[in-house]
Request: fold
Amino acid sequence: MITLSPKHIFKVPVEAECISPDVFAEKSTKEIAMLQIWEGNRKRTIGDFFKIKHGTDSSSEEITIRISGDVGKVRRIGAGMSIGEIIIDGDIGMHLGEEMEGGIITVAGNAGSWVGSMMKNGTIEVKGNAGDYVGAAYRGSTRGMGGGTVIVHGNAGNEVGCFMRGGLIKVYGSVGEFVGIHMRKGTIFVQGNSEGRAGAEMTGGKIVVCGWVPSIVPTFTIDSIRPKVKINEETITGPFYMFFGDLAEDGNGRLYVSQTQNPHLAFYEKYL
Amino acid sequence: MPKLKVSLLTGRTIDQGKGKEFGKLSEEYWKSVAICEMDPNDIKELGIRENDSIKITTDFGSAVVRAVKSKRTPHPKVVFIPYGPWASLIMNPRTHGTGMPSLKGIPAEIEPAPKERVLSLPELLKEHYARE
Amino acid sequence: MVPVISGVTCPVCGSFCDDIELVVKNNAITDVKNACAVGVAKFLNYTNHRHVIPLIRKNGELVETSLDEAVRKSAEILVDATYPILYGWSSTSCEAIRVGLELAEEVGGVIDNTSTICHGPSILSIQDIGISSCTLGQLRHRADIVIYWGSNPWSAHPRHIERYTAFSTGRFQATAWRGYLSRLGAILTKKRLMRAVNLVLRRDVSAPPGIDRRLPYSLFRKGRKMIVVDVRRTRSAELADYFLQVEPNSDYELLQAFRMLIRDEELDVDEVAGVPVEILEEVADIMIGCELGILFFGLGLTMTKGKLRNIDAALSLVRDLNQRTKFLIMPMRGHFNVTGANVVFTWQTGYPYAVDFSQGFPRYNPGETSMIDILCRGESDAGLIIASDPVAHFPREAAQNLVKNPLIVIDPEVTPTSLMADVVIPSAFVGIEVEGTAYRMDHVPLPLKKVVEPPENCLSDVEILQRILREARRIRRRYN
Amino acid sequence: MDLAIRNGRIVERVDEKKAEVIDASGMLVMPGGVDIHCHIAGAEVNSGRLLRPEDHFRDVEVKTAVTRSGVGYSIPSTFTTGYRYARMGYTTVMNPSMPPLEARHTHEELDDTPMVDKATYPLLGDWWFVLEHLRDGQIEECAAHVAWMMSATKGYAIKIVNPGGLEAWGFGRNVKNLDDSVPYFNVTPREIVRGLCKVNKLLNMPHTIHVHTNNLGKPGNYITALETMKCVEDLAEGKRPVIHITHCQFCAFKGSDWQTMSSGAEEIAKYVNHHDHVTLDMGQVIFTDTTTMTADGPFQYGLYNLTGNKWVNHDVETETSSGIVPFRYKRKSAVHATQWSIGLELALLIKDPWKIYMTTDHPNGGPFTAYPNIIAWLMSRVARKKTLGKISKRARRKSLLPSIDRELSFYEIAVVTRAGQAKALNLTQKGHLGVGADADIAVYGINPEQIDPSKKYKTVRRAFRRAAYTIKDGEIVVKNGQIVKSVFGKTFWVDVKTSLPMEVNDDLKQKFREYWTVEYENYPIPDRFLHFPAPIPVKAEV
Reply:
């Protein structure tokens, strides 16, 4: 267990993709302290910014990094990590676990935007809220999250799972607009409400919204009413309206929306 | 005091464009941007006359501007304020990861403000942006 | 015989008209021909409210100073900052933008242009979908359907319709001006009648605020037609053959619905964005039936709910329409050189705006590296603003964080931003007092002319930026 | 043997005591590389950059004391482009498609492209003036206008892309073959190619017409390519070429559809081996993710329909069009692998290296940074065999490569990468190391006497990736693959003097107003607009 505690509050963005079990593995406290990070346009070291406590018994296999304190401005932590675990006690900045390939990240507080963007495998769990573009692709790319799991216990922002290609995103709170936009494959589960346009331009995959939605994008067509829906092993009981779409994209994605929470969608039943 | 729930739009107008070219401190500029174009019926509903001061409030702030009749109606419950320091006070700064704040279709509330005066530009800057 | 300077480009809006004629008498513009109201105002009044001596803030007050002092101070501010922002660039020449990018790279700053709050979202969705576009002349020659969606050219680009689209004449298409005149006549007589009736009856019998959605016959004849889609009846809407009024914040649904309809698919709903589906079907048929169609879109799409995804849908709609006919789409760019700013940014850094040089190479991620976000998060610690007025146009929260930090303003005019600055360097008016290059909204590069001499020791943006760059290099060399 | 350099030129001798001496013994010394066809600047390239942040965000160039920062992969930013060419020992690059109306843009970018000399070809094959003059058989008038256009756009050669097809694309149509009439203009692609070929000769242009044929990228199009070459056969005099067929690989497809698609390289090579009036460049395909961009609007739209990738289209009034589609060439795709094979087959089956030059039609076949790989394939059967082993079975079965033993020598490589291209462009001071030549020199860290490129192709490839030295105008700009000095190359343009120049009167100005949306006086680029202009004066026959 290696513990990092920030020495002071950051104003400008700090880029610290080197904070990752893969990099820390088999490094001494001194070596870790020398690792380079960016504060705005200044080159710094982890030692400049963090107190490092190096617990014993850290073999490269189950190496764990704990960050205690406010790192809300620190970006790209755990980027590309493939092993071990990162535990963050407070809030965390953008691009957490970007292109992650394995391991576990847990955040006690809130996470910034682009959590697990382009991730391939592993698990990210955020106890608080997440920003926009959870599990999204980089600008112009169609390669969003391809595998692994992101769990958000609070709310998530806009475009959750943008260009998603696989894996699972679970949001126990509510989500913003365009959840699952351009989604190709994979599963998004939303316990709370959606601000609308769920599944817009999706061509495949599955989106489940247990709460309220303002409306369904007109390019979706109703298929049936389902008593329950399976998410991996877990079964969620409905009933749900099941829509197919996005027909504007020749898509056959499946959008499940709670029937009981959305009486204003009852008019769709006449097409069944 | 009557209140009106409206959808706020901001944008360019030819007067604002011209006013700008007379200088931001000019009377023309103030006249062209410290205003709120409303549907005449909405103005009636507020029980005020054209050019009276109104206070418009969003989740992000409030501003006092002149109410003027929109020439191209109907657009009930939709009001328009040209780009400028006054509109900026009540815009939605959230970009949702796009870099673009929301400057159109913002839910807002309008009420008559007979007691309040529309600020001049220097006054506005002093009140909202002056550094201590 | 007074000298008339012809073929002058107008440094105001994205239409970038280049047929302006100016009469210049002893170094002053006395008459303007061919320009729109805004252009005339620009050429005749650009000297108003102008300050030509550099200013620097000393214990709270802006006081006059020397250019060298102002340049030195600016360089110091930028070099000392850990996350400086350099913003504006859309109302200056490409030559200046090239130097600006070099400066941003030198001081490891974030450089962004005003497209970040106009067509930034358009660019983001172009990067997802692509865009089927053209130069404006192509439309003057060929377009028989002209759609303005969420844009109001009459106010924002006053000569756009007359020069490039509905009221212009090209090789294969004639102007729709006559049709408009007859329509206008009808409207006026209707209004007069109403007024008379109201006077007689002493009460208002004008139509209640409802919307007549029937498609006029003119839409079905051959030749040019103009359609305006907007949330309110703009001046442009009155010029149009057909005005399609939509509920605020529902453009996305409408565009997606059109994508279905042009592929002859059925909708499960009876009305979209407050418009009955039958109407939409008719409009869709008109789109498919055209020889060449063009969809111009403005901030009415980029700034409303949905933002980039509204454009996403618009671009996809036009792309899909090319399966049935020829259709093109173009954003209505605001400032005369905002397109140029995107172009120069892109060839030097690979990215059109919101470029972060803090690590010595360009990085790009709007939402993270874009002005409004950086300011709202309070992350920058210094700023340089050129040819732009964020204090007047940024949301309050962002502007407040901007003026908290050391602020440099390079601008020919006194603006709310310059009043708040720590260093103000007055520059010469590009396109009037200095020449250069700028890009029209359709990426056609045109020369900016110099027609009068700038005031004494009022330098061009290029020279000012070069001086700051040189000074910054000197200071950095001293540091290491 | 020693090379003496003074004032940026190669001279008889210099005073060795005073001179800086580079010991290149045991190294391969060549003239600086010359690229005849490579999209590096202008409207279309830049839209490609804008379209693809995902293409460059992983491949970056960090700012150094002497270089600017930038991004790379398939459409590098301008500075990066210059540096990466210089690192490979290239010193001259030709940008092949410039919409005349947007010429300013191209030249602004070329001015920001360091390290290399450059030039650019205006697109004239679908310009209304040309179409109308050729329809009315007015070759002289056409020549006068083309001459004006060369100086107005600071251009170097006449570029023709899908003649007639681009005008038709204005209304979403295309032309099918050389004798298909262009809608509304009643002129055929054949007349356009022949007409501009005559114009090119009348104007004594240094380069031939530079042609991207009709039906590009369609199965069976090798017929169109052959017809295009044939249609100007009678205009040839002696051994001087009169037409350049560019990125020939893309127009050497046999077959009736993508299933039956195969190589037409043999037929094309046979024709070229028996005729001297034509030169070609390869347009070699590399197995990678790249960005296709041509002025051929209809072709690009077809590519969009094929791939479903994002698509950019940009039509330019009265002149041309263009399109962009990201594209990935896959080894396992029979079509892509066949394309890869065709490029190499052409280069190997055409006997005379002075007739075919090495290009990837960057970025269409792949980025120019892959040139060293192509050199390896051309020089080594082993290298070709190795790649053949990895490609689609169907393509391997059809490929002619196994039957070809030819391996290019270092001399022949020097021809297809520099000397031949310089000759085709008539850049007399480039592509050789004779006295009077520009001191643009590439030194590679391999010994041509000792190495066997057929076996040691990997070593060769490495050497060509990172020049030991690149010398530009007599200055060392690259050392061991590192940029040590940043220089700005010249921009060549052809200044044609005609006895009856285009008459500029009010009628013409009015015609400008009718044809374009810009005023006549804002169209031409003034000489001072270019940072380092190098006009080449030419006396025309008319």
